[in-house]
Amino acid sequence: MESGRLSSTQQALIRESWQKVSSNLLQHGIVLFTRLFDLDPDLLPLFQYNCKQFSSPQECLSSPEFLDHIRKVMLVIDAAVTQLENLSSLEEYLTNLGKKHQAVGVKVDSFSAVGESLLFMLEKCLGTAFSPDIREAWTRLYGAVVKAMSRGWDLQGER
Questions:
Q1: pLDDT digits over 100-149, tens only?
Q2: I need a labelling partner for 10 at 20 to 30 A (CA). Which of 3, 77, 110, 123 fits?
Q3: Contact by Cβ (8 Å): 144, 1
Q4: What one-character-per-residue DSSP string does 10-68 give?
Q5: Which of 128, 109, 31, 37 is nearest to 77 (CA)?
């Protein structure tokens, strides 16, 4: 994960925009996952807690276990923002996170919908401040995170 892919200007844009999001990670995480389930409803069955299958995205989004998952996802994004100058320090963690996602049936292809949902959430949070430059910076950061996570999938596994 080369942080050289992000210019110092892009790093600043990411930090400034994340500062607004980080004031309420759970609320913004709910926006992200609501959008994700709109884009890819087939992901809903992957989220089961205590062998309980959710009948709707709303039921899932209101469960305490899923809200905990949202917090964890937002903290991973927060860690990436914190480590912008040294993203390689997160590589092993992200690769292992990829393995965990593969183990529960997530396909690498699903991460494109997650990326779209992340950009959607940022746009909703930032409003008119969400510029093409901010979009590009976040797209590059997310791409680096997904690249590291995708190393966790078996080479023979379905992508």
A1: 888 888 888 888 999 999 999 999 999 999 999 999 999 999 999 988 89
A2: 110
A3: yes
A4: HHHHHHHHHHHHGGGHHHHHHHHHHHHHHH-GGGGGG-EETTEEPSSHHHHHTSHHHHH
A5: 31
